[in-house]
Amino acid sequence: MTTESRARSFSAAAARYADHRPSYPPELFDTLAELAGFPLAGARAADVGAGTGIATALLEARGARVIGVEPGEGMAAEFRRRNPRTPLVRGDGNRLPLASGCLDLLTYAQSWHWTDPARSVPEALRVLRPGGALAVWQNDPDVTVGWIADQQARIEERFGPGWYINERARSQEGLSFAVRHLTWSRRVPVETHLAKLSTHSLFLVGKPGTDAFLADERALLMRRFPDGRVEERYAVELSLAVRGPDVPERPIG
After folding, report:
1. Is-contact 135 218, C-beta < 8 A?
2. Residue 195 in contact with residue 145, Cβ under 8 Å?
3. Is 63 left (phi over 0), alpha (psi -120 to 50) or beta?
4. What mean pLDDT comes out for the span 5-16?
5. Which of 9, 133, 217, 242 shows a CA-CA span of 20 to 30 A to 172?
6. Arithmetic mean of pLDDT over the chain
C-alpha cells in the first residue's frame, strides 16, 4: 500500500472523519501567532490537506482569511458541506494551485507527512510572502498515558510498527523551524474513540483483521472503563518557520 493510496483512503470515510476526529486546543493558535510574529486576524492563509475543514474553521474563527486546499474528492465534498462559505481548491502541497507570494500563512494540520518535502518546501517558499510563515502540526495520542500506550502496543503487535504515519517538519534550505509542544484532552464515549480510531488510514485500506481488532478493543475498553467513557489525551507538536526576505522563489517545473 503506497503512501499516496493511504492518503486518498480518507475520502471514503469523510463524514465519519469530520464527526469523530479531535479538534485542536485554543493554545495552539495563540502559540502559532506568537511564533509567526503577526496576528491571525486578517492574515491571508491557506490550509493544505484541509480534509473536512477542522483546522480551516478554527483559523477562520480567529479572523484569518483562509482558503482550503484538498486533493481528495470525498473530503473536499464534506469540506464544502460543512464550510459552504469557505473557498476551497483541489490540490496538494507538492504543487500548490496558488499564486506566488500571495500568503501570510501556510498551514498543514496533520498533513505534512503526505507531502514530498523536496517539492513541498520550495512550494511553500514560493507562495509565502517574505516574512510569511509555514506552520506544521501533529495531534498525536499521548503515549505517556498508560491506557493509550497499551492500545498503541496492541495495534503494533497486531499490524506491525509504522501504522501511525507521522513525519515532523525539519529544517530545510530557506526554512528553520521553531518547535513548541502542547498537551490537551477530551473525554468521549468509547464508541466515539473507536470511530476516531477507524478513520486512520490503517483501518481504511482494507487490511485484514481491522474489524476484529476494533471489536476486541471495544470489549477491552468497556471492561477497563465501565462508565463507557475515555479521556483521550493528545500531544501537539507545532513546527513553524518564517520565510526570510532573500529566499528565491522556485516553482515546481
Report:
1. no
2. no
3. left
4. 70
5. 9
6. 91
Residue 251 has pLDDT above 60, yes or no: no
Architecture of domain 3-242 in this structure: 3-Layer(aba) Sandwich (3.40)
pLDDT in tens, 182-196: 999 999 999 999 999
pLDDT band at 204 (very low <50, low <70, confident <90, very high): confident
Strands 229-242 and 128-141: antiparallel
Residue extents of the structural domains in the chain: 3-242
d(CA 194, CA 23): 16
User: Cβ neighbours of residue 198 under 8 Å, at least 6 residues apart?
Assistant: 13, 16, 204, 210, 214
Cell numbers describing residue 148:
493509550
Return the amino acid letter for 165.
I
123-175 residue pLDDT tens: 999 999 999 999 999 999 999 999 999 999 999 999 887 666 666 677 777 78
Give the CA distances from residue 67 to residues 11, 12, 71, 213, in Å, rounded to whole numbers and listed in that order: 19, 23, 13, 38
The three cell numbers locating residue 174:
530557506
Please count the other Cβ atoms lying within 10 Å of the Cβ belonging to residue 187. 11
Task: Kindly report, residue by residue over 46-85, the tens digit of the pLDDT.
Answer: 999 999 999 999 999 999 999 999 999 999 999 999 999 9
Task: Name the residue among 68, 73, 69, 56 with its Cα closest to residue 13.
Answer: 73
Q: Is the dihedral of CA 239, 8, 46, 198 positive or negative?
A: negative
Q: Whats the size of the chain, residue-wise?
A: 253
> In 104-189, where does DSSP find H-type helix?
117-127, 146-159
pLDDT value, residue 167: 65
**Nearest-angstrom CA–CA distance, 16 and 92:** 22
